[in-house]
Specification:
The structure is a single chain. This protein is of the alpha/beta class and about 350 residues long. It contains 12 helices and 10 strands. Strands 3-2-1-4-5 form a 5-stranded mixed β-sheet, sandwiched between helices. It has a 5-stranded mixed β-sheet with strand order 8-7-6-9-10, with helices on both faces. Strand 7 (about 160-170) and strand 8 (about 170-175) form a beta hairpin. It is globular. The structure holds 5'-O-[(R)-(carboxyoxy)(hydroxy)phosphoryl]adenosine and zinc ion (ZN). 5'-O-[(R)-(carboxyoxy)(hydroxy)phosphoryl]adenosine binds near residues 201, 205, 285, 287 and 290. Zinc ion binds near residues 132, 136, 157, 285 and 318.
Amino acid sequence: MIDQKPPNKIVHHATPGIAEVQFVLGIETSCDETAAAVVSGSNNVLSSVISSQVDLHARYGGVVPEVASRAHVEMLTPVIAQAVVEAGLNDGDIQAVAATAGPGLIGALLVGVSAAKSLALIWDVPFVAVNHLEAHLYSSFLEEPDLELPMVILLVSGGHTLLVLMEAFGKYRLIGQTLDDAAGEAFDKVARFMDLGYPGGPVIDHLAITGNPVAVAFPRPMHDDGYDFSFSGLKTAVINHMRKNPNSDVADVAASFQEAVVDVLIHKARKAAQQFGAKGLCLSGGVAANSLLRERLLNVCNEDSIRGFLPSRSMCTDNAAMVAAVGWHRLHLDGPSPLDSGADPNLALPLLT
Ligand code: KG4
Ligand code: ZN
């Protein structure tokens, strides 16, 4: 007997000119979050779905690239479907598909980019390759579209520590960056050494509440030395302290380490905002969830009478709403990306020269 399958559903897309594109599907798979979101225009988030792989990687004490790629393959299709449904739309309403093309883990990036290109091809809509760092820099505008520019943005995550002056959308000056470990990486490595689990940032943040931040005088690397950062020596100082003083109070060490990291981050961000005449200072990236960093940022902004903006935790970490919104902007500025463009694990932020 011949199996009578219903014909495949054919999705007909109205194909608007690029200037009319409103509904953009964004896909984010650069590291260990599988995310999809739909935005309307430059900042109206209709849905944002994030499937975190953190539990999968916790047992290894860090992100395992091959495990991440496989989990993205498994989760991406249902995550995209959920994002479209939660936006109250049908596949046929999506007018462009944007995906993070780098920087990130190459295998993980390829899953998202390949899915985005396939959907763009099937739906006959433009594909847009998005820079993950630009997406983080833009994320605050999804929650506060009226932020005034120029603004200094401190982007602190597990993979990046950047101090950037944003003059307009797409116009960025790199003020400083880490010369070795990223801020989140330092939190994770210190926590791993102290057997506190993964990811380390939230655990140290929590422990520090009951610790004494002046118990151990850890170094403030490069505090008065330009705008670049270095956290590797500080991490080693914590490890050496623990080796020499195995009975140290863990909460005191956590609080003293966190104090040193936040001191340096805030000192440089504030100095940059003053030097470059920024109207505001804001945070992005996973470490932006740190309670001391958030508190200190608002304090210095109040003292200097500039705007301090703290995005919500879900907007700080990797998400696809920021990717879709930057995709919308890039599509209107530069047009679609070619379908033969690839993923680049080292993709650089486009900078003003
Ligand atoms: O942006 P994100 O989710 O992923 C990428 O690295 O791209 O950032 C994760 C990083 C981890 O290193 C984690 O330990 C750190 O952000 N983190 C924190 C806190 N929450 C997350 N670091 C300090 N304090 C926190 N509350
Ligand atoms: Zn990120």
